[in-house]
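Table S2 (text version). Query chain:
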Amino acid sequence: MSDTLIDRADGVVTVTFNRPHRKNALNAANWADLDQVLHEVARNPDDRALVLTGSGGSFSAGADLSGGLSGGDESRTSSLTGVAPQSTIHEMRHVGEIISRLQRLPKPTLAVVDGVAVGVALGLVLACDLIVASDRARFSEIFVRRGLALDGGNSWTLPRAVGVRRAKQMTFFGEMVSAQDALAWGLINEVVPVADLEGVAADWGRRLAAAPTTAVSLIKRLLDSSFLLGFDQSLEDEARAQHIAFTTDDMKEGIQAFLERREPQFRGT
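Corresponding structure-token output:
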């Protein structure tokens, strides 16, 4: 059984963490697979949207801490990411590079969460553009309960999603947050009955893949950088992005579809 299932259909690349006996705790193979698929999706024009999910009723229980990872650097017999055992800071930098590529991917990304999403796995979820969860999903910044600081980009993505006060509440206590509270706090986009999760995820994935790829990538960059910019620079960046969008075939199709009063058929070019 593969640790990671990768499926491609209609422009949607679905990555499924597949270790249900461990609640999909992320091991070295998972990180290597995710690393590879992110490189592929970024470069393949036929890959127009990325979906992350987990099998067996869980997204992921976080990092797999088995295999000699419970002690300090001196006692380590294996690594989180499959490379030779090395100092924790280098391991975390490698994980950080993978999550950074996910967050910066120039294609829309969707996290589909059933069951638990905790620790570094929550970091993966929050690095995605959109998050849909089942009504039995639960989220936790579990680190403090293991005597750990934050990783997985959570220190950056979490306060931007829920604000600093809620972020401190989640990280100081490490408690589970229900799907309903996560929705109310702004951590996720939608909560659906577990029986509907697969269908809603498929619909959102298809819609993202059918969108004008270049325009979506420009919108994504504009929104993600807005926290770091002043208003005038944001206006200038919008002007430059719109100039680029005007050069695409998808823009021409969008205008033509409007004039012909039909739905546009974007091709990502």
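Notes on Table S2: The CA atoms of residues 182 and 188 lie 6 Å apart. The first strand starts at residue 4 and ends at 9.
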